[in-house]
Design goal:
Layout (H helix, E strand, L loop, with lengths): L5 E4 L12 H10 L4 E4 L8 H17 L6 E10 L17 E7 L2 H14 L8 E2 L8 E4 L16
Parallel strand pairs: 1-2, 2-3, 3-5
Antiparallel strand pairs: 3-4, 4-6
Helix pairs in contact: 1-2
């Protein structure tokens, strides 16, 4: 298998940014010999259960063939708030946020990631936004695009 893993993949759960079903993404990655893949949809983790279930199905077939299992990596592309919800000022550009990819390293990280995404919230009028203090030892942060915050800028809180 290749020593390459996509860590920033959007599925059809990223409205206006992704259109691929989880199954097709996994099938393509396995066909290309990749060892794993992270899904990082915008502000949500709707595809995580689908990814987990499909990878378990695929891994059963890979095991029968004597191949390495395919590793699903759970993540989210989050919008990091410039200030807290109480301190935000629309005129200072607080309506948007910096982009940051957050990946779970293990089960504890997965649980922390669920908490972060849930606390960020999502309403019809705003994108989900998390405070800058969003790290833990069980979560990895990576920059996502030109509109990103440096992972080093996020302070440790947990």
């Amino acid at each position: 298998m290749e020593d390459f893993i996509h860590l920033h993949v959007h599925t059809y759960y990223s409205i206006l940014d992704g259109q691929s079903p989880v199954e097709k993404l996994v099938d393509k990655a396995v066909a290309n010999g990749m060892r794993g893949m992270a899904i990082t949809d915008h502000g949500n983790m709707f595809g995580v259960k689908e990814l987990y279930n499909y990878c378990n199905k695929i891994n059963g077939k890979l095991k029968e063939q004597g191949k390495e299992p395919f590793k699903p990596i759970f993540g989210c592309e989050m919008y990091v708030a410039r200030r807290t919800k109480a301190d935000r000022v629309k005129e200072k550009g607080d309506a948007g946020g910096y982009h940051l990819i957050v990946l779970a390293k293990n089960y504890h990280g997965y649980k922390n990631l669920i908490k972060l995404v849930s606390r960020a919230g999502w309403t019809a009028s705003t994108r989900s936004r998390v405070p800058t203090e969003l790290t833990s030892r069980s979560i990895t942060r990576i920059s996502s695009s030109a509109r990103h915050v440096s992972p080093a800028r996020c302070r440790r809180r947990y």
